[in-house]
């Protein structure tokens, strides 16, 4: 029965220290049966065929080898939207939704018509912005052509191909000109911490490894933004735990007059650094 299969799967996952065993077992069974969560519970007492049972346990075995469920099912939800993911892209994390929230908040203050996202991966952040900010023009860059193929599929899925320009290349170099807002979730895991990442070996190392202190990508990106941000423009950076002081100090050294703020995620961890350059009129007023 469905109920018994779920119960056994939860027990096996728990025994093997897989977090959220109930949610994971439900997700994998729904994928095996190709049904919705509602249908799963409507069919709670239905007997599984031998083929269905075998398919389900093949998925469980993959999960026991620590392959992420998102790769097993090919799906990940982010900011209320469903995204296709594969091993060419990093799996979107819930904490990255704060980047989308902060970007929408900045746009609400006015003065932003163009956004660039650096290292778009599957396109989750850029697409989340495009769906919620339909009047804006968005550029999304990535150094990985394979990742851009995934992003292209997701843009088509969410009908935003006309408003997101996918550009191959490193950091901001592919941009045709300056923009009003730059959003970046670059790799920030320290090399020494990589072995402790459960998804290591499944997610692309390029999307995880931030170098010795986790800040290699940020150090490469930030000196470029003066050439790619309009006066008064803003930068939003996702950072890892314990990186707030190093990142804000670095930014203040690069852009002394800029306004810098740090926002915590739901766990209270400093997660998003916001930098806003001075507007032209602000600079002019100081010179008078």
Report on the structure:
With 288 residues, this protein is α/β, with parallel strands linked by helices. The chain folds into two domains: 2-65, Orthogonal Bundle (Helicase, Ruva Protein, domain 3); 76-287, Rossmann fold (3-Layer(aba) Sandwich), CATH 3.40.50.150. Helix content is 40%, strand content 18%. It is built from twelve helices and nine strands. The chain has a seven-stranded mixed sheet with strand order 5-4-3-6-7-9-8, sandwiched between helices. It has a two-stranded antiparallel ribbon with strand order 1-2. α7 (124-132) links the parallel β3 (114-118) and β4. It is elongated and about 70 Å long. Mean pLDDT is 93; it is low at 282-288.
What's the short version?
It contains 12 helices and 9 strands. The chain has 288 residues and is of the alpha/beta class. The C terminus is likely disordered.
Continuous helix count = 12
Look at the structure and give the CATH class of the largest domain.
Answer: Alpha Beta
- What is the domain tally? 2
> What assembly state would you assign to the polypeptide chains in this entry?
single chain
Descriptors for this entry?
288 residues; seven-stranded mixed β-sheet; 12 helices; two-stranded antiparallel ribbon; Helicase, Ruva Protein, domain 3; alpha/beta; Rossmann fold; 2 domains; elongated
Q: Layout of SSEs?
A:
Blueprint: H1 2-15, H2 21-33, H3 37-42, H4 50-64, H5 69-73, E1 75-78, E2 81-84, H6 97-108, E3 114-118, H7 124-132, E4 137-142, H8 145-157, E5 164-168, E6 179-184, H9 216-221, H10 225-228, E7 229-238, H11 244-254, E8 259-264, E9 270-276, H12 280-287
Parallel strand pairs: 3-4, 3-6, 4-5, 6-7
Antiparallel strand pairs: 1-2, 7-9, 8-9
